[in-house]
Amino acid sequence: MYIDTHCHLDDPKLICRESEVVGSFLAAGVEKVINIGCTAETSRITMEQAERYPAVFFAAGVHPSDVSGYNEEGEEEILRLADHKKCVAIGEIGLDYHYPPVDKELQKRCFIRQMEIAKQKKLPLSIHVRDAMGDAIAILKEQRANLVYGGVMHCYSGSKESAAILLDMGLYFAFGGTVTFKNAANLPKVAAYIPEDRILTETDSPYLAPEGKRGTVNEPANIPIILEKLALIRNTDKEALAAAVMKNALTLFPKLKT
Q1: Are 161 and 241 in contact (CB under 8 A)?
Q2: CA gap 105, 42 in Å, rounded
Q3: What are the per-10-residue average pLDDT scores of the chain (258 residues)?
Q4: Long-range pairs of 102-105 with CB within 8 A, sequence gap ≥ 24
């Protein structure tokens, strides 16, 4: 019924009770999760977790905050992992200028290179953008030829105007716990604006627990809370929206069907 398109089961807060976390989200009706890598090493761990649980899939990539460690050996690992039957995307990749000092040019190069890998491996992208929307949009426009297999704007927090540009590129938008926050003034408006055939749900576990769970370790089992809030924002039936989200996920990530 439900899907979490972005979580980090390899995080120390979750991997220490891995089977419990999986059992909990299955009991909550979350049928599939995409476990996201942030480095070559963590991408390998997410692959190992995916091999242990039928409901867990994974993405391989290097997070923009970790590109200082991007090297040829790591890239070879990403390329190898991308061929795995349960690797559904390249990610999470993108730009993050939030914590200075930031090597913006290195982030841009690694973003573009991993976009090229996604095209080569016929996989969509899981895109992380923080305090860098202008540069991200510019790169996505320039590299549109590498977007042939699509992508999702993970934990989208940009404007409606930026969303319109990204929608025109064929991208999807994932919303997590932040859309439930009481101080999220603009985000609900954006969530209401996104067409039903482009919306996805995520938790970004163990981060960003939704309202009602704030201060706790976030888990994929919280997806129903996020879905319920999205349905309220969009003035639609929760189960109908859940079905649409699952359809969208299977469209963007075809390997989820395996």
Answers
A1: no
A2: 24
A3: 97 98 98 98 98 98 96 97 98 97 97 98 98 98 97 95 98 97 92 98 98 96 98 97 98 95
A4: 103/67, 103/68, 104/132, 104/135
pLDDT of 184 reads 87
> For the chain, first and last CA: distance in Å?
17
CB atoms within 10 A of CB 258: 8
**Tokens describing residue 111:** 């973003």
Predicted confidence at residue 185, as pLDDT, reads: 83
The two three-digit tokens of residue 49, written as one number = 């977790």
The neighbouring-strand residues paired with 171 are none
In angstroms, the CA 99 to CA 78 distance is: 25
Strands laid side by side in the 199-201 sheet: 2-7, 30-36, 56-60, 87-96, 125-130, 151-153, 172-175, 199-201
Q: Tell me how far CA of residue 48 lies from CA of 34, 44, 90, 153, in angstroms.
A: 13, 6, 16, 25
Residue 72 structure tokens: 């040829």
Q: Cα–Cα distance between 150 and 125 in angstroms, integer? A: 6
pTM of the predicted protein model: 0.97
Please tell me whether residue 147 adopts helix, strand or coil conformation. helix
The span from the CA of 180 to the CA of 87, in Å, is 29
